[in-house]
Amino acid sequence: MSERATPTPETDDPTHGAADTEEQPRTDDADDERPPVTTGASSVVRALEAAGVEAAFGVQGGAIMPVYDALYDSPIRHVMMAHEQGASHAADAYGVVKGEPGVCLATSGPGATNLVTGIADANMDSDAVLALTGQVPSDMVGSDAFQETDTIGVTAPITKHNYFAGDADTVGDTVGEAFALAGMGRPGPTLVDLPKDVTQGEAGREPGPARPPKTYNPQMEADEQDVKVAARAIENAEKPLLLFGGGVIKANASKTARAFAIDHGIPVVTTMPGIGSFPEDHELCLSWAGMHGTGYANMAITHTDLLIAVGTRFDDRLTGGIDSFAPEAEVLHIDIDPAEISKNIHADYPLVGDAGRVIDQVDTAMEHSPDAREWREQCGQWKEEYPMDYAAPSDEPLKPQFVVEAFDEATADDTIVTTGVGQHQMWASQYWTYREPRTWVSSHGLGTMGYGLPAAIGARLAADQMGQEDRSVVCFDGDGSFLMTMQELSVAVRENMDITVAVLNNEYIGMVRQWQDAFYEGRHMAAEYNWCPEFDRLAEAFGARGWRVDDYDQVVDAVSEALAYDGPSVIDFHVDPGENVYPMVASGAPNGKFALSEDQL
Amino acid sequence: MSSDRTTETESNTAENVHRTGLKGPGPDERPHPQGRRNSQGIRIDPEVEAEPDTREAVLSALVLNEPGVLARASGLFARRQFNIESLTVGTTQSEEYSRITLVIREPEPGIEQAKKQLEKLVPVISVTELTDEAVRRELALIKIEGEHPDQIAAVAEMYDGRVVDACADAITVEVTGPKNTIENALDTFERFGVREIVRTGTAALEAGANATAKHWPDE
Predict the structure, then answer these.
(1) What is the 3-state secondary structure (H, E, C) of A188-242?
(2) DSSP assignment of A255-322, as one string?
(3) Cα dist. A55→A79, A127, A418 in Å?
């Protein structure tokens, strides 16, 4: 076996022989009007078109220029971003909203490394993204050529799989395979590194259809015997609790999951990525659990005797301390990735398969619903005991929670919310009532500040392409998060994208400030801005509309004006810099010990 | 800053941070279950909690013979902090496929997790944990001071090894066998003065007619 830096064309794509795809003649008339595939780059673009790709986000550059040149004649809508990180986040969010892999492009070297944050983000959140990166010509690989980075090496740990394209004739097949793999089974990012000689090289054939690799065969249905045993456990549970993760949404299983919960009268907690899988205004819904989850969700997860977890990886922000997580519960775990079973929390009833299909299997196997009336009452009582009511005294500055609620009130149920990372993200997830899947678009596992604005751009384009031009896209951002990617406002203005950015501006890296107050004796090291730009004026300078809001009585008008404006708008809400996010489970603490104020930490 | 709209942010001080929070019974006023889980997330009796036992496992992975596959496997194990005792790779009867043999030492859940993570790599076709009956072999080359060639040759024979290179100053011995044979041979050669050692990892195949790989790709 060869282990070397420069792959050979023969071994680049061993799963797809050229012969079997040549047997499929093109019959589509529309295809025939397109220019023939003559180069590796045109094969790449044709593969994307054949896979149904309608949009791509990227930044031009030397090594990727052949691919961009091939996009010149393509119907694919390319959105040129200000920074490659924005391209990867936009592609990620586009994919989340549309339910198919998002595509991003970048050149070699710095282009590729700038994509890395977004790829890592997609990997942590199991979001389907295809990244295409330029690379220096094959014969220069390994020579430290201009703008050369070992993109395969850098991205191997943060992709589902990555490919070094080795041949102009098969590069389209490789791109198709990477696209198919990104969206199949447990979704995730894939990457194809495209050396310039390969994209410029002559190609004489159409790429085949997008097919996943032959070695990739995710299990879709759980073992019937295991399902029967699990069904008995649910029937006999006295305090059953459903935990819906992001996998429910990715599997398009929200409807099935809702019906299951409602039919059997089982209370529902979601994870943060699972927000929207179950309507938060339903009486069975306890909202989300974990570090800043609701008190009632964390009480329920602490006292359940059967946790029915669907499509979740038991992240530490959800579990708190492993030793005290759902300590009285048997765990029934449904997941399409076998490696998530018993990775962090032991599964007493492991069911590997697609979320929707396995829930159907379990439902069919159940002879009766559990008797959970007392438990439902208990959960309802916790809802009353731990309301998410925040204090808004008139002698304190504007509360960020109020801003979130004002936007929720002013918008329709299908509004898409994107966020950066930090306190504002927590308020946006706590004080907005989510009712539909794919309306909450955030950076969960990686916690990437700056995700919000490029994500709003991706979400906007996805909604538009789905014919939902009237759907609102609202980005809640922090002042710190916004400063990290706000250059993407130039893109939103140039492309006239109807998005509304609500900056919950407390002139702090607020979550860090909150932790410094709680755990570092209030020493605000590198958390405080001594100077913060005026985001409303900055927005106007970009060509967007800008508002500044300092008081409660300005909120409603600014919100409605910004939402009404058909284009990008920014409201700089100067909110209470001292406001903290509660409830809070300290790192590694038991969920049931969540603090409701700082003195309880 | 020139703007007249700048407001002094007098509230940006630690003293002004609000200490109030949400309503509800505090942590000490709530009921808390007594149950516990261990570090593997398994529910346990807190009274008899003990560190989980580790054991050695030999994993054999059939993989596509493509560039980078060894880096993917070894990178995965390093990244996820699996304790690797050895890792070897080589071709099989088909030039399209290679076999990676990994020896790891982990608690039971760690071994299961290692298998599943390895199986997730796209070029990996199948992963098997070998049984205790599996044939396991390692190879060591040992360069020894050349003063006692006859005795060294005799010791080598005791371990089914042989002298593969000799000069006036040094003698190099090859020993092949299960791990404990190699360890014993190394101990014995110590007395002659060992100059250098090189060892391979474990190569292993399932015993008898049993197949090592669970399945091969459908041709």
Answers:
(1) CEEEEEEEHHHHHCECCCCCCCCCCCCCCCCCCCCCHHHHHHHHHHHHHCCCEEE
(2) HHHHHHHHHHT--EEE-STTTTSS-TTSTTEEEE-STTS-HHHHHHHHH-SEEEEES----HHHHSSG
(3) 8, 16, 19
Q: How far apart are CA B41 and CA A319, in angstroms?
A: 10
A511 is a catalytic site residue: yes
Give the span between the Cα atoms of A358 and A238, in whole angstroms: 22
Give me the helices (H) in A418-471, please.
423-430, 452-465
Sign of CA dihedral A241, A246, A247, A248: positive
Pairing of strands B43-44, B54-64: unpaired
CA distances from B71 to A4, A337, A481, B82, B203 (A): 10, 22, 35, 15, 18
Angle between helices B108-120 and B69-79 (to 10 degrees): 150
Instruction: Please report which helix (H) or strand (E) contains residue A71, including its range.
Output: helix A65-71
Q: Which of A22, A24, A146, A283 is catalytic?
A: A146
User: Amino acid identity of A237?
Assistant: A
Q: What is the DSSP letter of A577?
A: T
Q: Say how far apart CA A75 and CA A73 lie, in whole Å.
A: 7
Task: Report d(CA A546, CA A573) in Å as an integer.
Answer: 11
**The pTM is what?**
0.92
Q: How close, in Å, is residue B87 to chain A by CA atoms? A: 14
What tokens appear for A488 in the block? 């993407």
Minimum distance, in Å, between the CA of residue B161 and any CA atom of chain A: 28
Assess whether pLDDT exceeds 50 at residue A364: yes
**B32 and A302: CB-CB below 8 Å?**
yes
Q: Is residue A188 a contact partner of residue A145, using CB atoms and an 8 Å limit?
A: no
Helix (H) or strand (E) holding A114: helix A110-124
Among A28-32, A277-281, A555-559, B4-8, the least confident range: B4-8
Interface contact flag, B37 A3, Cβ < 8 Å: no
Q: What are phi and psi of A581, to 5 degrees?
A: -95, 120
Q: What digits encode the pLDDT tens for the residues A200-217?
A: 999 999 999 999 999 999
Residue A542 burial by Cβ neighbours in a 10 Å radius (0-12, 13-18, 19+): buried
Question: What is the 3 state secondary structure string of A124-152?
Answer: HCCCCEEEEEEECCHHHCCCCCCCCCCHH
Please count the helices (runs of H) and the strands (runs of E) in chain A.
25, 18
Q: What is the DSSP string of B125-185?
A: EEEEEPPTTSEEEEEEEEEEETT-HHHHHHHHHHTT-EEEEE-SSEEEEEEEESHHHHHHH
Contact B200, B138 (CB under 8 A): yes
On whether any CB of chain A is under 8 Å from the CB of B100, the answer is no
- Over residues A437-458, the pLDDT tens digits come to 999 999 999 999 999 999 999 9
CA distance A493 to chain B (A): 24
Closest C-alpha to A81, from A550, A514, A461: A461
Q: Hunting for tokens 């993570």 — which residue is that?
A: B117
Smallest CA-to-CA distance from A127 within A158, A106, A148, A150 is with A158
B30: contact with A, CB 8 A cutoff: yes
The verdict on a CB contact (< 8 Å) between A346 and B42 is yes
Q: What does the pLDDT look like over A530-585, one tens digit per residue?
A: 889 999 999 999 999 999 999 999 999 999 999 999 999 999 999 999 999 999 99
8-state DSSP, A178: H
φ and ψ at residue A138, rounded to 5 degrees: -50, -40
- In the sheet where B84-91 sits, what is the strand order? B84-91, B97-107, B54-64, B124-129
Tell me how far apart the alpha carbons of residues A430 and A434 are, in angstroms, rounded to a whole number. 9
Please say whether the beta carbons of A476 and A425 come within 8 A: yes
